[in-house]
Design brief:
This protein has 473 residues and is an alpha+beta fold. Helix content is 29%, strand content 23%. The protein has helices at 11-20, 59-78, 97-109, 120-123, 148-161, 204-211, 280-290, 337-356, 379-388, 404-412, 420-427, 440-451; strands spanning 2-7, 27-30, 47-48, 82-83, 87-91, 115-119, 136-140, 144-146, 165-167, 172-178, 181-186, 190-198, 218-228, 239-242, 252-255, 261-264, 268-270, 302-313, 319-324, 327-331, 395-397, 402-403. The strands form four sheets. Strands 5, 6, 7, 13, 14, 15, 16, 17 and 18 form a nine-stranded mixed sheet that branches. β15 (252-255) and β16 (261-264) form a beta hairpin. α1 packs parallel to α5, α1 runs parallel beside α8 (337-356) and α2 (59-78) crosses α8. The longest helix has 20 residues, at 59-78. The radius of gyration is 22 Å and the shape is globular.
């Protein structure tokens, strides 16, 4: 009998797991994919929004501002990259200043700090590459960028080391009440639990509708992106938004924590909730739109394109509630979902703890061994590390300067990487200019050695994404 089962190991589910692990109890996370951070959480703009965009008095507004306020301290406590660089929403026409004023007023109602409207002369002092048409911008000092992968991984690792169990490659098929507890049936097992948290992303409506007469409908809204090489570092120094539309916050040009430039996303509904393809039409749209706000974007420096799906609930707000007795929904989490995740974790876990009368976990340990990045070490620091373990002197991924020691550590950490994409999210090997063209064979070799598998068993991500094949005739 579990005290609580959380369905979904994206940044929302693992934030809830992290906060529940501060309580005494028997907790389980069930994930249909092979790792944490495999859905929406792995494909987003990696921004902690200030909170001016959300409609006042909504859960989006409350969670966004709260999450933004606590994210910097949290990043230091559990170890993920965070940088408060601020954001601009730019307009290219005097008539659009009214939109900026509306956003400013919303921000004031949402208790967002550090906002002001700046005009072209002042803007060019801090962003020299803004387009010649830019007229004014709303500046928000509290906006930030993060490493979304390591934020998700950090929540998961700390919760796991504090006793939360994680089951991967396991899909929930049914949920129903039996006596005074819940039955969660998967493709592998049947579990008994006192409480359930539904954090299943784009499939959250499916699980909600299994237990509730009040049906929800979540649509998958696909956002496509272009990622530019690190040689573009400094193109923009802040997050730069176009004025928002009814489809979202518009096309964004933003630096990433690793020195790249990210451009996107689009916003289009798709029927298939697994459809993360990219299209020429939408990528062309991005390239046309981004030049409205920033000039001299070196699009020849694009190293990859990708897309992610956002869980849009028709009512337009987050669904954070106890839907049935001891069944809790944390769904409809689209933008600003990453910004809100730290707050949602506290909010939902406290609802669960109050209902189950959970006591504080006196043995909770916040400590997490940081993920070593040799590229960020000084020469002397790197030399000392090599003396302890020579594998930290063997560079495997040349683009991102990732060593064998870092890859081995990523595999052997709590909830460690089991495939190429798992390595990529934790230490960035294969994420650089060549996109794994040179280093993938060596990483496959290391994965096979550390996991005691044949190299042909190593996959890119899911269990059927084989990389190496052999003639069996």
């Amino acid at each position: 009998m579990y005290d609580c089962i959380i369905i979904g190991s994206g940044v929302t589910g693992t934030s809830i797991a992290y906060n529940l692990s501060k309580k005494e109890g028997n907790f389980l996370v069930i994930e249909k994919n092979e790792d944490v951070c495999t859905g929406t959480s792995k494909a987003n703009t990696a921004i902690i929004h200030g909170g001016y965009d959300a409609k006042p008095e909504t859960l989006k507004a409350k969670m966004n501002v709260w999450g933004s306020e606590i994210c910097e301290d949290l990043s230091k406590e559990i170890g993920f990259a965070y940088d408060r660089i601020g954001s601009f929403v730019v307009c290219t026409d005097e008539s659009e200043v009214e939109i900026l004023k509306k956003l400013y007023d919303q921000g004031i109602k949402n208790n967002v700090k550090g906002m002001e409207i700046l005009y072209r002369e002042d803007l060019l002092k801090v962003e020299k590459n803004l387009s010649d048409d830019v007229y004014a911008a709303l500046f928000c000092k509290s906006a930030a960028i993060v490493d979304p992968f390591l934020m998700n991984v950090a929540f998961a690792e700390v919760s796991y080391t504090n006793g939360v169990k994680y089951n991967f490659n396991e899909e929930v098929l049914d949920i129903y009440k039996e006596n005074d507890y819940w039955i969660v049936k998967t493709n592998k097992e049947k579990y008994e639990t006192k409480a359930v948290v539904n954090a299943a992303g784009v499939y959250g409506d499916k699980l909600h509708n299994l237990v509730s007469e009040d049906k929800l409908n979540i649509k998958a809204r696909r956002g496509e992106y272009l990622l530019l090489d690190k040689e573009t570092k400094g193109l923009v120094n802040h997050v730069v938004f176009d004025v928002p539309t009814d489809k979202g916050k518009g096309v964004v040009i933003t630096p990433t924590m690793d020195g790249n430039t990210l451009v996107g996303p689009t916003a289009n509904f798709v029927e298939d909730k697994e459809d993360t393809s990219t299209t020429r039409k939408q990528l062309d749209y991005i390239t046309n739109q981004c030049e409205k706000t920033v000039k001299n974007i070196p699009l020849r420096s694009v190293i990859t394109s990708f897309s992610g799906l956002r869980a849009h609930e028709e009512q337009g707000d987050f669904v954070l509630q106890e839907t049935k007795e001891n069944f809790f929904d944390a769904i409809g989490i689209e933008s600003p979902g990453l910004s809100s995740a730290p707050a949602i974790g506290i909010y939902i876990s406290q609802m669960v703890a109050d209902k189950l009368n959970l006591k504080e976990n006196e043995h909770f340990n916040e400590h997490r061994d940081s993920i070593i990045k040799t590229s960020e070490l000084s020469f002397d620091e790197h030399q000392k590390l090599i003396e302890k373990d020579p594998r930290y002197g063997q560079i495997i991924c040349r683009c991102e300067k990732v060593t064998e020691g870092e890859i081995v550590d990523a595999i052997n950490r709590p909830l460690g990487a089991k495939n190429l994409d798992g390595i990529k999210r934790r230490v960035r090997a294969t994420a650089g200019r060549c996109q794994g063209g040179f280093c993938s064979p060596k990483i496959i070799e290391i994965l096979a050695r550390e996991l005691d598998k044949d190299q042909k068993e190593i996959v890119k991500n899911n269990e059927n994404s084989f990389i190496l094949t052999s003639n069996t005739k």
